[in-house]
Amino acid sequence: MNHIMKSKRYALLLAAALTAMTVLAGCGGGKSAGNVAAGDSGAGNTGSSGEQVTISHYTIDSEDRTFIEKLIPDFEKEHPNIKVKVEKAPYEQFDSKLQTLIAGGNSPDVTSHYGYGGFAEYYNKGMLLDLTDLIKEDGFKAEDYHIPENLMKIYTVNGHTYGIPVNMYVTLMLYNKDMFDAAGVSYPPSDYEDKSWTFDRMVEDARKMTLVSDDIAKTQYGVDFTWAERDMRPLYFGAEPYSEDTWTNGGVPSETHFDSPEVIAAYQKLFDLVFKDKVSPTSEWSKSVAGQNGDPFVAGKIGMSIGGSWNLAGANDFPFKVGVAAVPWGGNDKVRSTLYVDPLLILKDSKHPKEAFEWIKYLVTTEVQEKSIELSGGNPPVNTEAAEVYYKHFDGIDPGDVKKVYEGAVKYGYESYNHLITHYSQINDMFINELQPVETGHKSLEEVMPVIQKKVMEIIKR
Amino acid sequence: MSTVKATRPLESPSRLRRRIKPVKIASFVTLIITTFLMLLPLFFMVSTSLKSKREMLKFPPTFLPESWAWSNYTDIFETLQFGTLYKNSLIIAGFSVFGTLLSSALVAYGFARYRGRGNNFWFILLLSTMMLPYPAIMIPQFVLFSKMQWIDTFLPLIVPAFFGSAYNIFLLRQFFSTLPEELFDAGRMDGCGELRMWRTIALPLSAPALATVAIFAFIYSWNDLLTPVLYLSSSDKFTLPVGMASLTSSRFRIPPWHLLMVASVLAMVPIVTLFAIAQKQFVEGIVLTGIK
């Protein structure tokens, strides 16, 4: 007995020692590989005229972002003096790693606001390089890359440009064709100019498809209306919660109006979908049904779902026939869709901004943007010429519909607040927390909105 | 005497049976139910890992896979460079366990066996480091390792383990303190040096505590996400948690849960194995050191 125990003890120590020994070699190898990657060692210098530099592109570690690694070999062939290294982090850790990298003096050269923080947050923290001179020196023109001029304006503050757009997501409506067919409802239009397609008609259609049953497997709802971030939703009905000056001074509003009657009425209309009209699911139901996927629409339990065009990227996997439609008219003649334009940014601490700019230009050329659609699995390009390829990317969805929806969304689109307002990750967290009791039906908007109004102003003044 | 002997075997088993049976049944039923409840998430993990992508989206979810997608277990190696990630995690965890055992046992031995000036002060200082949350030292530590050119190597993930950790030192100190002083006096009389006493007397007698520390250190390193995210940049150096986090990283895609479950099942293997090997010591260790 004692003997067995003793041998077990030694087995444990032995195992630890063995692991340590076998592993020593591996570690040594890892270290030298690191040195090669980090250094501008001799090998790279041969053959190129200019000085060899390495730039790093920091991005999210997911297939729809790391595909840029596949573009590097061609780029390096064209630019023998520039080496590109991709650094990545999972989505949840994106911001903390970026902050640490910058604080530790290892700032990447190129990145985007792929984490929780938006452009305005980076801008106000002084993290971004002003690209205006680089653009002038280089002779870069947005039109040469088929980037619409109004998209360039999004990341221009007081005449200074801080980012070059690379992807453009819009808000659109996805609908479950099988559910429409079963209820005998005609498909919604993809044309934004079709004035009969209103919020009220959407509610009517949704009512015909809603079926609330004791059997959770049979229950289905007509519409899931999550139009953009929570603070943005009043805009859809024509109510503006942030003061005009927000958009001219780097995302710092002087006033907000979250407790105004118009804003409260707008929210009321959305919550009525759940509690009065009962055509939309409660957040608890969504969570329980959506389970792992986070979206009850994907599980086939929702007729119409309004959300970001990234939902399209999964469309080829949906277990039902899917279509795209325009976001119905909700009372705002100008705004019916939210745009999420992701820019490429150069960080202020970049040691090679010129080379970084070369890489950015490469990523927005028509050829590369077209290639990126396939490589990324359906990222929408900003380049309008490459967009033609994008419209055809989705199995079973009419490219004409995708095109109409996209073009309408751009015409009636508004850049998402999360990119434009300072301290946005805190504002967003606050909204999610404070609106929670309303979403579960435990509090009224009249109780909650004045609190939100006060808290938004506190966060902005930080 | 003989009558007593005769009646007892007749009476007592039946009385015993009668008295204990309901309690036994009740406890068995409770055990079975709790076991079932505990195993349910585990069951779903394995079950989901064998479902196809389409079936994974179904609601209500199927209990058992409709068609068993065994290919998921090979797909994961293509999607994630799973082998590389696994190897990296094992390397780092192996070193961390070794380093933690070595340093913590040595320091704990010192704290347990020597009385000197400021002994308590240093011990309290050591324990107070437990209260520092990692984010508080994250940036200074990063700057330090960055200056040492250790970024994108395994060193920042391994070397700190060789400098001890307060919790493990505390645990081992408590254990070492219970060892009888006579043993060491005897050793000293036989002319045994301090290091040798540590190695030949204290360590072998502390196998349960060491096993506990080893398992803690392994699980900590095996599950750690933030440190590898911060220090590693090249994908061929990533660890398992980093790779697995990247599967759910896209804001735009339905996460491949079936593959993530495959990864989770496989990630469990070393911990279960280690626990199986060290179980006896582990349980003893928790009882003896009085931690629960």
Q: Could you outline the blueprint of secondary structure elements for this entry?
A:
The complex is a heterodimer of chains A (462) and B (292).
Chain A: H1 2-38, E1 53-60, H2 63-66, H3 72-78, E2 82-89, H4 94-103, E3 110-111, H5 119-124, H6 132-138, H7 149-154, E4 156-157, E5 160-161, E6 164-176, H8 177-183, H9 199-209, E7 221-225, H10 233-236, H11 261-275, H12 283-290, E8 302-308, E9 322-325, E10 337-346, H13 353-364, H14 366-376, H15 384-391, H16 399-411, E11 413-415, H17 417-420, H18 424-439, H19 445-460
Parallel strand pairs in A: 1-2, 7-8, 10-11
Antiparallel strand pairs in A: 3-10, 4-5, 6-8, 6-9, 6-10
Helix pairs in contact in A: 14-15, 18-19
Chain B: H1 2-49, H2 53-56, H3 72-80, H4 82-113, H5 119-128, H6 134-147, H7 155-158, H8 166-177, H9 181-189, H10 194-205, H11 207-223, H12 226-231, H13 240-247, H14 257-289
What would your notes on this structure say?
The complex is a heterodimer of chains A (462) and B (292). Chain A is an alpha/beta fold. Helix content of chain A is 44%, strand content 14%. Chain B has 292 residues and is an all-alpha fold. In chain B, helix 4 packs across helix 11. Chain B is globular and about 70 Å long. The N terminus of chain B is likely disordered. At the A-B interface, helix 1, helix 2, strand 2 and helix 4 of A face helix 2, helix 4, helix 6, helix 11 and helix 12 of B.
Short description:
Chain A is α/β, with parallel strands linked by helices. Chain A contains 19 helices and eleven strands. In chain A, strand 4 and strand 5 form a beta hairpin.
